[in-house]
């Protein structure tokens, strides 16, 4: 199982990325947060190595591609810096960050953050993007709130232009049996030998929608470590 310390650092990283979206790209606090993000990455790498070195954890070890995610982080931050403007009205699109961290045949857990809000996610396991049995590929997708559809008495978030997939949503639900490629949200994760689930999904989805309700479009950036 993923350790509490490792999960805490994954959560911190996702929150830092979300905060960076709302800061001036070359400002003082942006530089400070990037320094902290670098320290968190280094700590995650250290924790990952200690898990691999622990023989009791060997059979449960998940592949944490930290170098890949670090590259994505700093490529994105450099892009913000290189495209910055002195015009204060030059604002960025809001971004929902989803960091996948625990994938097996029962499902794929992740952590989601946008603004000051964070929660858990649950998806199907990765099976090479095969429709109906696999989660979608990592990447950055344009998304919007679809008010024509409600699931669990909440609107849904629709992702656009997902390779080889249609109808990919973020919505209310508890179990992987309720999805064919979509993303569920909840405030707690529960795992046993036969299933994975997230809880309090309707309330959690309401809080997520409140973070993006004034945005016509926004990004959903899905990564894994």
The topology string of helices and strands comes to HHHEEEEEEEEEHE
Work out the number of β strands.
10
Radius of gyration: 17 Å
Please report the number of helical segments.
Answer: 4
Q: Quick one: overall form?
A: globular
Q: What's the structural domain tally?
A: 1
What do you see in this structure?
The two termini are 15 Å apart. The chain is built from four helices and ten strands. It has helices at 4-20, 28-53, 66-82, 201-212; strands at residues 95-104, 107-114, 117-123, 139-151, 154-159, 169-171, 183-186, 188-191, 196-199, 218-224. It has one domain (4-224). The strands form two sheets. Strands 1-2-3-7-6-5-4-10 form an eight-stranded mixed barrel. The chain has a two-stranded antiparallel sheet with strand order 8-9. With 225 residues, it is of the alpha+beta class. The chain is globular, with a radius of gyration of 17 Å.
Give the helices and strands, then pairings:
Layout: H1 4-20, H2 28-53, H3 66-82, E1 95-104, E2 107-114, E3 117-123, E4 139-151, E5 154-159, E6 169-171, E7 183-186, E8 188-191, E9 196-199, H4 201-212, E10 218-224
Parallel strand pairs: 1-10, 6-7
Antiparallel strand pairs: 1-2, 2-3, 3-7, 4-5, 4-10, 5-6, 8-9
């Amino acid at each position: 199982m993923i350790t509490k310390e490792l999960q805490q650092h994954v959560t911190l990283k996702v929150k830092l990325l979300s905060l960076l979206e709302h800061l001036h790209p070359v400002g003082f606090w942006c530089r400070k947060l990037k320094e902290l993000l670098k320290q968190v990455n280094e700590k995650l790498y250290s924790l990952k190595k200690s898990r691999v070195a622990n023989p009791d954890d060997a059979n449960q070890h998940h592949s944490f591609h930290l170098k890949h995610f670090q590259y994505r982080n700093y490529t994105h931050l450099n892009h913000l810096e290189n495209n910055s403007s002195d015009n204060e009205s030059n604002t960025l699109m809001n971004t929902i960050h989803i960091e996948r961290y625990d994938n097996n045949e029962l499902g794929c857990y992740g952590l989601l953050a946008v603004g000051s809000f964070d929660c858990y996610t649950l998806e199907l396991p990765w099976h090479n993007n095969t429709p109906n049995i696999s989660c979608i590929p990592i990447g950055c997708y344009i998304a919007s709130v679809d008010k024509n559809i409600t699931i669990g008495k909440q609107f849904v978030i629709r992702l656009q232009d997902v390779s080889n997939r249609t109808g990919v949503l973020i919505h209310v639900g508890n179990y992987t049996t309720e999805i064919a490629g979509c993303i569920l949200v909840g405030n707690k994760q529960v795992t046993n030998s036969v299933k994975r689930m997230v809880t309090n999904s309707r309330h959690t989805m309401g809080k997520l929608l409140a973070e993006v309700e004034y945005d016509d479009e926004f990004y959903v950036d899905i990564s894994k470590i």
